[in-house]
Design goal:
It is a single chain. Strand 4 and strand 5 form a beta hairpin. The protein contains four helices and 13 strands.
Length: about 210
């Protein structure tokens, strides 16, 4: 099993109609569709590898993504994990629900739910994310996960060379953030990921 690391990101335009306001127990939430994973070759320049995430690996752990924590940046603790008290009280702003496999398992789709009051109280990128979602503007998404049973073999997928085949992804968190932040996307909307229709990735070692 690999170390937790940050991988694949995507950027995508968001339609304001895709974002719904939900109120529960006096709190306001924003609900919107997310595609955090898609079958593709992910580039890890910091590791010097290109890694293929196949549909078969995505399909194997779809159910495990239900309840995965949403963050507005990748967690900054030593293990880069959202399963940490400081991350829960800080970077965590919501959760991902209703995961399902699309297109023969080549995409993971679900619904994000963001706690508006917490995001606005954190300020900065978290508060701006709320504004962007409400306005139907572009945002980015990146899944943080570890993998098991990776295969060290090379090949090609969709015209791209890879050095390693990622095994089933074990979710830790999904980062949702403004597209103009310093986090760099590993993949584009054309790759098929996004929130409310976007997907993305950052420099940490938690795989996407």
């Amino acid at each position: 099993m690999t170390d937790l690391s940050a991988t694949g990101w995507r950027t995508n335009s968001v339609q304001s109609g895709d974002v719904q306001t939900v109120r529960r127990n006096g709190r306001e939430y924003l609900q919107f569709p997310i595609v955090p994973l898609t079958e593709m070759v992910l580039d890890y320049p910091e590791q010097g590898t290109k890694e293929y995430l196949p549909a078969a690996s995505i399909q194997e752990t779809v159910h495990l993504w239900d309840g995965t924590l949403l963050t507005y940046v990748h967690p900054s603790n030593h293990n880069r994990t959202a399963r940490n008290p400081d991350a829960f009280m800080g970077e965590v702003i919501g959760a991902f629900h209703d995961p399902t496999a699309l297109d023969g398992g080549s995409k993971l789709r679900g619904n994000g739910l963001i706690d508006v009051a917490k995001a606005e109280a954190l300020g900065g990128s978290a508060a701006r994310l709320v504004e962007l979602l409400r306005d139907g503007k572009q945002v980015s998404v990146n899944a943080g996960y570890s993998t098991m049973n990776d295969e060290s073999r090379s090949g090609r997928y969709d015209g791209e060379q890879y050095d390693l085949v990622q095994g089933p992804p074990l979710p830790d968190h999904i980062a949702v953030f403004p597209s103009d932040s310093q986090i760099q996307a590993r993949c584009s909307p054309e790759d098929g990921c996004a929130a409310p229709r976007a997907n993305a990735s950052q420099d940490a070692q938690i795989v996407n």
